[in-house]
Sequence to fold (339 residues):
Amino acid sequence: MKKDQYILGIETSCDETAASVVKNGKEIVSNIVASQIQSQKRFGGVVPEIASRHHVEKITIVIEEALKEAKLQPKDLDAVAVTEGPGLVGALLIGINAAKAFAFANGLPIVGVHHIAGHIYANELVQSMEFPLLALIVSGGHTELVVMETHGSFKLIGETRDDAAGEAYDKVARVLGLPYPGGPEIDRLATESDGEIEFPRAWLEAGSYDFSFSGLKSAVINYKHNVEQRGESIEPAHVAAGFQASVVDVLTSKTLKAAKEFGVKQVIAAGGVAANGQLRKSLEDVFENEGIPFYVPPISLCTDNAAMIAAAGTSMFNAGKRGTLAMNGNPGMELKSWH
Fold:
């Protein structure tokens, strides 16, 4: 009988300190996340230095908790997978150094994982991937369309030229005076709204799968200024609804167009903004109509977590990929195929 494989995942790319044990690349045995939202909320966003300090305080605790919940000892593990990049360099270094120390102390191999590969592989924890597939990645720092022909094969066909979708959400939320994090607040307001302001869609040139949300963000700011200059007040829910409708329309349309062009068997969504209720429903509806299987992880696996890093790390480990103790934080790391 084949022995079960256990990988410890560690994630500290931004403001979540997370550790998880995943069995055979598909089954979550434990998944511990220490969030900093309450601490960062008073600053209206993530302060890198404060994020790093929180990681220092929490990293050992979450690793121990992940092993305890999994009822495993370090000797039961096959490898350690850690986010190598991209992310905040100070935050990345905490996780990487903790992973290297743990791996060295316990004689385990280490694997450096790309954060976005982790988000994609969060889907493997819910539904087996079928290739070729199309992945829509929407998060605070990334908006990308990636075609995968097999495990660990990534072909970038579209990306944001300016603000990522999540970044635009946070900036618009700040303009509207909504608390951090802005994405869930805008989604809530938009869902409850009884009307919406019409905002433009940035389709870019014909045939492009790239995205641009900077102009939309500017349109929202200009609308607010124009209304206030007339001595009137804006209705935040109507602005939120119009902004979200524009983002969802562009993301859904381009994803559908790409899925048809590349003849994929499966479409998946990944990243923090994939937790957005209206985006999930829009994608589910269009792909159900097209007869193309569409999957998105539960919200707990859309936001940053270590189970996704362990899942991607398992695929890398089984493909023979290994890191070294010279591994460093790579804030500008590119998504490269490992097959």
Summary: The chain has eleven helices and ten strands. The mean pLDDT is 95. The longest strand covers residues 27-35. Strands lie at 6-11, 16-23, 27-35, 79-85, 110-114, 133-138, 143-148, 155-159, 266-270, 294-295.
